Structure formats: C-alpha cells, structure tokens
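User: For my dataset I need records formatted as: sequence, then structure tokens, nothing else. Please produce one.
Assistant:
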Amino acid sequence: MFQGKIIAAVAVAIVTSGAASAATVTDQYEVTSAVGSGNDHSLWISTGLGGGIGTDFDFDPSGLMTLLSDGTAALTGKVVSQDNASAWFDVAFDYDNDFLQSPNFKSENGSVATASTFYRDMEGGTLTGGGILAGLILSVSRLPVDGYYATQIGEGTATNNGANNKNNEFGMAGWFKISVDQATCSICAGNSVIAALDGKQGDVNVNLSAVPVPAAGLLLVGALGALGGLRRRKRSAAS
C-alpha cells in the first residue's frame, strides 16, 4: 500500500486567506520507472552525488501522483539510488496549472504529443535525503525558469514514445532546478559534487498506472507535496 493513498483517503479542509476551501481528488496514479529509450530511471540528477551514488534513482516502492480538481497535483514517494541502496530521497513535488506561458511539448527519443497529453507546472518541492544521505535536503523549482516547457503527462502511439519520452505507455516527464537547502549527511562533508549541486538540473521520467480514487475525495490542497514548500516559505519568512 502507498502512504500517499492513506493520506489521500482522509477528508481534510484548508484555510486560505481566512476562508475554508477544499479540493477533490480527480485522478491517482501508481508511479514507476519509464523503461525504454535512453537510460532507465525514475529520477535523474545531472551531476550525481559522488561517493559511488551516481545519477539515477528509482521509485521503490512505487510512488504516487495525485491530481486535484483545482488544477494542483502532487508527486510523492521514495526514490533509491540504482548504484547504492543505502542512498535515497523522499520526494515531495508540487504542481499547478498556473503557467507563465502556454507550454510546448518537449520531444525526446521520438516522443510526440497526442490527444491525451496535458501539462502541469512545477510549483516547487523537496528531495529529503535518507540512509547515507540523511541530512541532505534539496529544494526543486521549475526548469526552465521561464516556463516554456512544463511537466507533460500523456501516452504515446503505436510507433512513437509519449509524454514520458521513454516509451508509449501513459506517463510523465518533467525537468527541475536543484538548490541545496542543507548538507549535513554522512557523505556531505568535503563532497565537492554535493557542494556544487546548486543550480544543477534534474529530470523525472515515469510511467503512470491509474489507481482507484478514495471515496472521501477531500484533500488539503497540495498536501501530498506542499510540506516541503511550506517549510521553505517559513524559512524565507524567518530570514
């Protein structure tokens, strides 16, 4: 069972600008690595993390993508290094449909937009280290920063890859910028690769398999991924 499903099954309300509001879950998806064209991974960090960890991570167990009726979405789960099972991140990414400009489809490995393709814009989020990465906290943000491309979701065709840029299964691809919030993990000290992560790029390429939507359907808007963003906003306000 996914932790995200348990969270999503609980009816909660939120207070926004003093007024209570709620959003319903419209779709939920099991998230797994998109196997196909190019390197197979769920999440890729362009420069790796040094210490034999490498660049590629997979959801283990499967993650969860939740879409809400107000246009927001959340990606949650645990991604484990393909090279070192003692290194992982807890993923909490937030999305919305408030685009800076109309997004274009980003084609890679012969991928094409189809009638099922739609977009969400990365609002922010966190990668919280675990195992030998415990104490490492990375924040993520939209890339490219001008919003020309957004996170794309959809399927491919019989002859072309789809939105995940890896295969023709229903999936997702997105790009993000990395900032180091905290680096106190056991392999962080003196690790020039981690010290240089600020401004580096990451990618998400995954398959999405529909799972039943909880009957309760009421969620804290952005709750599945917004805790990281909330922490960042609190830190900014305190600084």
